[in-house]
């Protein structure tokens, strides 16, 4: 509550009094008008001058200048459409993106083709509705190559692609041009980490900057995580994130191809394996099964599917791939859609107990 000068008027004269206060540039729009005992208390930005008091009394003899305690006015969240409704042709407002990824001080947006000539306007509007942002990036390619990188175009702000991102109590440093990361997997990071038990050995086959590995190590006192990635920049940021989150000694970052690394040093070592490379994870099922301990373990398998039955299809692919090894699926613990990855394409996860 803030004490401020005010006009006290009968409720019936409220509209007229507010209009007059605005005309005299006295109305304080940061505070909320209050009603008490059939009187309105209208906040003023300061005490009226003698000339202003004379004009107020002339128009509103019933008005009294007083002091009152006012709550702050809660500002409504500024929406993208509010900023752009007078900057875009009306027929294009329906094409505004419905989802934007916020990663630290960076926003990442997919600009529809029909908005391409307005992408700079869109970028500035995104910054206007999110004051903490320093850069807005537009996706300009699909995720590609072995490092799973995409190209971006700066459409507003400073153009920095390196940032710090917080998730589930962890801080992650990353550069979006150098290492893959998606905040849309936040729930998945938490879901998998919550299943890991004390004393387990985990292999994160495609670890990236470490959102699975670091969270697991942060939550458990006694755990060993082998975090593998083929991208040297991802491993550099993974090491930085290990230090930033004080989980040294629990995570072993390893640069290289997961197939080669497992065959050389990690056969039959894992209680649990995370395979978050949905484009190609199916190609690594054989080596993942080699990495699981002789007594068995858990596999978290990810796949992109454009099948009419994406969950069933992913589960079938995993079952057939495991059958081709010396292992079997004892039980499918969970199978579900994680997110929509593109029109008619979904990312699916299957959790399976391997024996």
Structural commentary:
By secondary structure, this protein is of the alpha/beta class. It has 3 domains: 2-70, Alpha-Beta Plaits (2-Layer Sandwich), CATH 3.30.70; 80-160, 2-Layer Sandwich (GMP Synthetase, Chain A, domain 3), CATH 3.30.300; 181-354, Vaccinia Virus protein VP39 (Rossmann fold, 3-Layer(aba) Sandwich), CATH 3.40.50. The protein is 27% helix and 30% strand. The strands form 4 sheets. A 7-stranded mixed sheet has the order 13-12-11-14-15-17-16, with helices on both faces. Strands 2-3-1-4 form a 4-stranded antiparallel sheet, with helices on one face. Helix 5 crosses helix 6 (211-219) and helix 8 (258-266) runs parallel beside helix 9 (285-291). The mean pLDDT is 95.
Question: What does the secondary structure layout of this molecule look like, with pairings?
Answer:
Layout: E1 2-10, H1 14-23, E2 34-36, E3 39-43, H2 50-59, E4 64-70, H3 80-84, E5 101-103, E6 106-109, H4 119-129, E7 135-139, E8 152-157, E9 162-167, E10 170-175, H5 186-193, E11 201-204, H6 211-219, E12 224-229, H7 232-244, E13 251-255, H8 258-266, E14 272-275, H9 285-291, E15 297-305, H10 310-323, E16 329-342, E17 345-354
Parallel strand pairs: 6-7, 11-12, 11-14, 12-13, 14-15
Antiparallel strand pairs: 1-3, 1-4, 2-3, 5-6, 7-8, 9-10, 15-17, 16-17
Helix pairs in contact: 5-6, 8-9
DSSP strand tally: 17
On the 0-100 scale, what is the average pLDDT? Answer: 95
Largest pleated sheet: 7 strands, mixed
The CATH topology label of the largest domain is Rossmann fold
Radius of gyration: 29 Å
CATH homologous superfamily caption of the largest domain: Vaccinia Virus protein VP39
């Amino acid at each position: 509550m803030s004490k401020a000068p005010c006009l006290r008027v009968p409720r019936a004269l409220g509209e007229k009094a507010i209009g007059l206060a605005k005309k005299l540039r006295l109305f304080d729009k940061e505070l909320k008008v209050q009603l008490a005992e059939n009187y309105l208390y209208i906040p003023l930005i300061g005490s009226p001058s003698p000339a202003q008091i004379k004009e107020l009394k002339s128009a509103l003899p019933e008005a009294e200048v007083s002091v009152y305690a006012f709550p702050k006015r809660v500002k409504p969240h500024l929406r993208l459409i509010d900023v752009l409704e007078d900057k875009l042709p009306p027929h294009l407002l329906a094409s505004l993106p419905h989802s934007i990824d916020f990663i630290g001080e960076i926003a990442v947006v997919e600009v529809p083709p029909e908005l391409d000539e307005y992408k700079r306007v869109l970028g500035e509007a995104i910054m206007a509705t999110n004051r903490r942002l320093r850069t807005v990036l537009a996706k300009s390619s699909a995720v590609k190559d072995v490092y799973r990188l995409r190209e971006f175009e700066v459409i507003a702000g400073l153009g920095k692609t390196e940032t710090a991102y917080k998730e589930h109590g962890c801080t992650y440093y990353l550069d979006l041009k150098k290492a893959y990361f998606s905040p849309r997997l936040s729930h998945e990071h938490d879901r998998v980490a919550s299943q890991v038990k004390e004393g387990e050995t985990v292999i994160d086959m495609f670890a990236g900057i470490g959102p699975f590995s670091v969270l697991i190590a942060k939550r458990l006192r006694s755990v060993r995580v082998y975090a593998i990635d083929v991208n040297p920049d991802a491993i550099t940021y993974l090491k930085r994130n290990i230090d930033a989150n004080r989980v040294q000694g629990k995570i072993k970052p390893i640069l290289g191809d997961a197939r080669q690394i497992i065959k050389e040093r990690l056969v039959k070592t894992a209680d649990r394996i995370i395979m978050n490379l949905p484009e190609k994870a199916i190609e690594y099922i054989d080596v993942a099964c080699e990495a699981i301990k002789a007594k068995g373990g858990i596999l978290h398998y990810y796949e992109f599917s454009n099948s009419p039955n994406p969950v069933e299809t992913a589960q079938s692919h995993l079952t057939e791939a495991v059958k081709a090894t010396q292992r079997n699926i004892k039980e499918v613990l969970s199978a579900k859609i994680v997110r929509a990855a593109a029109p008619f394409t979904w990312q699916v996860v299957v959790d399976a107990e391997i024996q």
